[in-house]
## 1
Amino acid sequence: MERIPLIAGNWKMYTSLAEARTLAAAVVSACKGLTGREVMIAPPFTALATVAEVVHGSEVRLAAQNVCWEEQGAFTGEIAPGMLRELGCTMAIIGHSERRQIFGETDALINQRVAGAMRHGIAPVLCFGETLAEREAGQTMAVLERQVRAGLSGIVVAEPANMVLAYEPVWAIGTGKTASEEQAQEAHEFVRNLLGAMYEKSIAHQMRILYGGSVNSGNVDALLRQPDIDGALVGGASLKADSFERIIHFRQ
């Protein structure tokens, strides 16, 4: 089974409701008649209901930027998987570097989120990646292995197409710096082989691994031509309809 590329837009903490509605409508329009790829957008929580109305009936998948592992309870500030499903979310970004770096989310906590999402039919987009200091110290692959193994600890992957990973070198996020296609491919190939060791090669072959880190309309084609890069997790460029449309229509 061939992997279907996924272009995922992470809107982070941007967009008013009006802006979210306009941007979502532009994405839906850009995806009409689109084949050979999937598109996902992750608005802020406040805009999920609004965007859900816009993307309803379209090919665009709706995602949350995080998800709790519990069904309900005294978890102030968290959003339960069932609440997200009720809004129409089918995916959730988990373990983004900003959650790790700014909010102190640990590998163990991220693993709980992955498990909770999967229990409720939400496909995780598990993020991982090294800092600049870790790369310069030659620790990149060790960091990736630790984060992937911990994030997927105890996770049974029954439907590999619904388990998405995203390699996002921390030093390339929002900085304008992008890993070269060779650097990105090297990391993706390493993780693909790691998944083969953790599960089975056939499962590893079906799991999508996205690249995230200053992806834009100018570098997306070269990145997605790499054999183990199965799409992109796009930040800033997903907030501009024209640039995101160009990324959606990447050329291999």
## 2
Amino acid sequence: MSTKPEINILLVAMDQELGSIAHSYSHNAVTLNSTTIAKAYSIELKNNWIVLKTGVGPINTALCLGELASSYDINNLVQFGIGGALTSELNVGDYVIGDSVIQHDAYFKDEKTTQLMGTGQLFLSRVTDVDPKIKTSTKITTLLENFCKTKSLTFKTGGVASGSSFISNVALKKEINQSTNAIMVEMESAAAAFFANENAIPYGFIKVCSDSINKDSHNEYKEFLNQNIELAPTLLGFFDENI
């Protein structure tokens, strides 16, 4: 029987999101040794939470989650932040709730074919028909949908494409959409979803669309970056009451 303390994790990528929660709740710093980029705060509400800012990208995400798992038993993992639209049906300010995650830049390519691989899997696993998508928790997805409805937020539930590159090129966005059928692209969820799946931890994803699928998407990202931070404390409070 494990003697490690039990926690839930709200996972964010940037200081803006972490800072909004730090201003709203009493917190204590959690020491992280795996990377100098990361920050984490312990917040005692009805349940015990650690709000973890990993920094951008899958490597930072994997390092931080692995370190916390060595010291805590993680009950739930919820990811919040921003991402880019892969479809014209998403507008800036719309929220995406992920029902699956796929690593869009993990693929086998030769002169004739390009085939997606599963996150953390060998290409040969495709022979046994392993689905390259990682499903999110139905329970957490339902809670996220209820949260959006309660707050009158416009949202869509669908697949998320995750990789190591910041994607603002419209043609590349359309290519990722065609190859994965995902509606949003971002940089941390493949690592988080894989970690959660390997460790049987319920995982859920919600991010706001910060840039649409048009020629000005890079500028839209810059303008929207600071407009999403107010919702983070509200999301944490909602999950604390309902998880």
